[in-house]
Specification:
Blueprint: H1 3-10, E1 14-16, H2 22-34, E2 39-43, H3 64-74, E3 78-83, H4 94-107, E4 111-114, H5 120-132, E5 138-140
Parallel strand pairs: 1-2, 2-3, 3-4, 4-5
Length: about 170
């Protein structure tokens, strides 16, 4: 097994639109494909350290849904995307945030991963609202890992919600 495939089996590469021109982003995605990466988590990314506002690269993408569209159109990846039980900071409310999550799925995301959260009921409410909004792909909860542990044990400070996928299909 080559190094790229071994690496891919342990981690999901994240690809975000922050800081790259469209041409370079396509090169990066091609490189991932060339080393056997099959699964990519598509994120817009956060503002650079010290910045309070996210600004796209002048020749780059603006939103994660644009990245998902590029990946779905030009590559054969299994694409994951973020969702936000506590509502994305840029969204005015949960309903608008769910509309955007649905756009990600319609663009090609195969599943969603939540931001880290600490209120299980908020997650369960989010799952119900997502179903009502027509989002049927599976949603995985973010897990919290203890950075001090080489075995990546769960930190006792993290919420451990019961499993309740958005999709009723298992």
């Amino acid at each position: 097994m080559d190094q790229g495939r071994t690496w891919a089996s342990r981690r999901w590469p994240t690809s975000h639109a922050l800081g790259e021109a469209k041409e370079r982003l396509s090169e990066i995605l091609s490189e991932l494909k060339d080393v056997g990466i099959e699964n990519v988590l598509a994120l817009r990314g956060d503002p650079p350290r010290g910045e309070t506002e996210w600004k796209p690269h002048p020749g780059g993408l603006h939103y994660s849904v644009e990245l998902i569209e590029v990946m779905a159109r030009d590559f054969d990846f299994c694409i994951g995307a973020a969702c936000f039980p506590e509502v994305h900071p840029d969204a005015p409310n949960l309903q608008e945030d769910l509309k955007y999550a649905r756009r990600k799925v319609e663009a090609g995301a195969s599943f969603l991963i939540t931001q880290l959260f600490f209120d299980n009921e908020l997650y369960f409410d989010f799952v119900d609202e997502a179903r009502a909004a027509g989002i049927t792909v599976r949603s995985s909860r973010a897990s919290c890992r203890s950075p001090a542990s080489s075995r990546s044990r769960r930190s006792p400070r993290c919420a451990r919600p019961r499993s309740r996928p958005i999709s009723s299909a298992h």
